[in-house]
Amino acid sequence: MTGKLKGGMFLALAVVLAAGLASVGCGPSEEDELNKQILAQIAVIDREVKALERHQESMRGIVIDMQTQVNLMQEELNRSAPRIHAAKSAVSYLGELTTVGFGESPARYTLRTSHQWGWTTIGLVSLFLFIIWLFYRLRYHSTPQQ
């Protein structure tokens, strides 16, 4: 902002010098009028510089608020990092499960180590059917026949 202040003061000085050079050929009343105009221009420039300084201060406050928000977002991301990692791992694992039978994968390895899974499934289905048949027999044979 000091560059803008220097620029504003330089402009005011240039106006004063120009007025001083112009007043060499002017009479006393014209010189007073010119001085009034110069003072008015200096006042306008001063108001603009002060307005710019106020704007700069408000922008500083906005930047500080934004930095605070960025810090809060970063903290939230840091807190979420383990959950994000777990979710990515779960997605990767599910992706591996869909490749069963289409190449080497951890899921295929799990199925390969259990080479009796077909007979186990058949045995469990048979056991289920046997239990149903047993309950059916107990129900209909336990009632007295007339």
Please outline the helices and strands.
Layout: H1 2-22, H2 28-97, H3 106-113, H4 117-142
Short characterization:
This protein is mostly helical and 146 residues long. 86% of the residues lie in helices and 0% in strands.
Could you characterize what this model shows?
The longest helix is centred in the middle third of the chain and has 70 residues, at 28-97. The protein is rod-shaped. The N and C termini lie far apart (111 Å). The mean pLDDT is 79. It folds into 2 domains: 2-103, no CATH class; 114-146. It has helices at 2-22, 28-97, 106-113, 117-142. Helix content is 86%, strand content 0%. With 146 residues, the chain is mainly alpha-helical.
Fraction of residues in H or I helices: over 70%
The tally of helices reads 4
* Multimeric state: single chain
Mean pLDDT: 79
Tell me, what's the shape? Answer: rod-shaped
Number of domains: 2
Strand content: under 5%
Number of strands: 0
Q: How far is it from the N-terminal to the C-terminal residue, by CA? A: 111 Å
Q: Low-confidence segments, ≥5 residues, pLDDT <50?
A: none
The Rg value, from CA coordinates, equals 45 Å
Q: Main sheet, how many strands, which sense, barrel?
A: none
Question: Could you give the order of the helices and strands?
Answer: HHHH
Structural class call reads mainly alpha
